[in-house]
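User: Structure tokens for this complex, please. No commentary.
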Amino acid sequence: MTARALKTEEYRITQEPYYASQGDEIALFEAAFRNRLPVLLKGPTGCGKTRFMEHMAWRLKRPLITVSCHDDLTASDLVGRYLITAGETVWVDGPMARAVRAGAILYLDEIVEARKDTTVVIHPLADDRRVLPMEKTGELLEAPAEFCLAISYNPGYQSVLKDLKQSTRQRFVALEFNYPKPELEKEIVRHESGVDEHVAAKLVKFAGMTRNLKGSGLDEGASTRLLVHAGKLIASGIDPRTACRSAIAEALTDDAEMLAAVNELGASLF
Amino acid sequence: MSNQLSLTAAELETLLDASLDPALSARRNTHLAEALAAFARDQQEFVLHWTDVIARTNTEMAYLFANQAPEGLRRMALADIEAWIVQAMDVYDRMGLFPACKVFREVAGFAAEARDNACGVAFEDISGVLELFVRGLSGRLLKLESSDELYTDTDVLFLPARVARLPDREQNFRLCKAMAAHQWAQTYYGSFRAGLNDALQRYPDPERALRLFHALETIRLDARLARDLTGLHREMSELRAALNENLCPAAWEDKVARLCSAESSVQDTLALLAELYNGELPAPVSYQGTMHPDRAEAAVAARIAREKGEFRTALMQMLGEKDGEYKESAELDLLGRFSVTPNEEREGEFSFALNLDGKPITPPDNVRALMDSIIQDLDQIPDDYLTAAGDGGYRRENEEKKPEDVWKGAYHEEGAFLYPEWDFRRQHYRKQWCVLREIDVHPVDEPFVARTRHKYASLIHGLRKTFEALRGEEKLLKKQANGDNVDFDALVEAWADMHTGREMSERLFTKLHKLERNIAVMFMVDMSGSTKGWINDAERESLVMLCEALEVLGDRYAIYGFSGMTRKRCELYRIKRFDEPYNELVQQRIVGIQPKDYTRMGVTIRHLTKLLHEVEARTKILITLSDGKPDDYDGYRGDYGIEDTRQALIEAKRDGIHPFCITIDTEARDYLPHMYGAVNWALVEDVKKLPLKVSDIYRRLTT
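Assistant:
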């Protein structure tokens, strides 16, 4: 089997990605989209931000271009650069220019990881100008009405070097995400992993226990994503205790004492 | 060695003879050799080796050892036998031959002790894991302490100092876990909720009634665990089986059904107690411990009173945030605006929703935890929790210091700095309100620094390594005018520029560059009277460790201590200025840090903000080491102190300074997020761990 190669802006999500709404975030995002406002998704890791973006891309029938930001991401990585083929120079659009041209949804994941000078290039796109100046080609790309910019950010980081600048954050409509309420989270785990309701309820309870330990040695409690991972392992016949240990406890911490405590909590439930 | 053939009795005898020299002891070693012949080769060689070693000290003792060795080999592992020998030799050196031989003769006793050491678990070994375990179960903060008695007062779970009832460590740990879980279940499923003490006193023999009650309650809790924590329940059942214990006597079996239903409460247990009072009293199971309803009720009452105040204060804060202003508490009618309704969706669990003005709201984490805790005690949140409170929360009663002490000598404001203070009631600053002076800490020449370095030698080594790695963080710089390698991307770009007729860049190289950490950090150390003793030591040790680490890192740093009494005498103690090197004088000043008076934080933050503002750095951080809320003698406490501190921190943030607080106050959750922001603080619960943690937190904060 070979993987199909598609251009990112041509790839459409055709199957509805499963997303259980926690509140009015879908309506909010749609309103922001219609009003051409950029969106900031706040929330801890693994609570469904990326899935929400996929769902919205499907719902709004737009291509979704996702860029995971890292500290080596330069402005030309986003906008584009000249390349040389056979002695000729060819301009190649970066993901940002492609998203603007195609009227796609551009999703910059973990924006604080990008260098501060890089975050600034999104500014003209993120206010009412909605343009992308491309210095190298001397062009100014005007975003069509369908273009939408979304960024995500985890406010739980303590590092002072990883904070979102006011000049950036004040351009966005912010949607706050958190771990879903137990009933909903149970439903999500059940649906995503294929375990029965009984096991899903236990996994959710386990997550609650680890979230109780946040601040007592854990930086974060278990995310919904980890629960789904554990659920999938259980559904494929792995012993629930082993699944909790490998998919959740070991993923949360390396501290031996904390690991032992989390394992005991997992073992108490199954 | 073990796969070699065992030595025969004859071979052994020859070897033993060589060590024990039968000519001197006039004994025949034949029976020793015969007893040893049955063992494996490595065991034999072990015995021969040690017989030889002991014989060099004393032949008589060596003979006795060889004689007892078969018994020892049957009872102990080789490592334990070695410990046994070493102990005997040690006794010989100190007390002579006879007591030493006694050690060898008492092989059974030593083996039992060794087994106990090998398989038993000590409280210190397991308390860390179990404390986290219990916190994970309930969310409420329960402390673990070691005690002769196994019981809980609902604040603290008391566990034995050592558990060695079962044959291996793993099982003994399970037993400890069962003990902790059973006590946790008492607090969580409301064993003390029903005025238990009074109910039991009505029986002719309250002691018997209590024991019977406990036995029945254990059955009820066991059923609850079976429903909620299947795995734990299974483990506890296995434990009972291993110990041959029975939870429910045969005579009770058809009576306890109602204890095992999903809605059972402590009332059912009490009802059944009345019925079964004259029957037999079953033996308690080993994780059950005892109950002290009187102590538990006292602790519950104290907690209820405290949490009631805290809850009202928290609600008022939420109201204040919603309405945008903070009214005097008496004017507020909490009941009219807040309501609490039980959540229908989850049965069998305590779940309540908080509503404000008829709409459900999500309370902050600390209020959530508080509600859970109240519901655990009372099964609900009573209406009177929602009526207007007097002055709840934020109280601190230590008024023993007299203001007249302050006013000795002539008062003047020369050479002092004047700062405003925020009055949240007026929503205005009080101008020139605080008088602050900088004072040098008196240097003390004591070997404290050397001692600390010695105490934490290995830790300092580790710290240095981590911080060196931070400093040495190398980064590949692109588009440099010169460097070690060609920057291919830049080259392509330049080529492209040239072909499109633009000017070609000369910056075509990559270069490895050490990342410049342009950070200036100010440490603000609490020197209030409450830091006396342990905390002061921990603070000083933390500073020593921190300086060691920061010297490696090369970040610019300054350290100031703060204390004072009343707004007229705010004092800032210089320990290290930014431009001062970390030298002997600075070390002596660290040693000289002493607990002084009160903590007026706002003015200190304003002054240190000013100092930080004068430093050139890309990132500026203000880290507070604190042990409690802001507090000063002249009314600077409660909301006033907190709001002024918050305001001072907001001013600091406006100046581009990142404030952060490291605290040891376990109640910090209630006020620090409000002052510093949700993530800009860290709690170090164990004071002893402060020196380790502070550097670690700093590292996390700046990477």
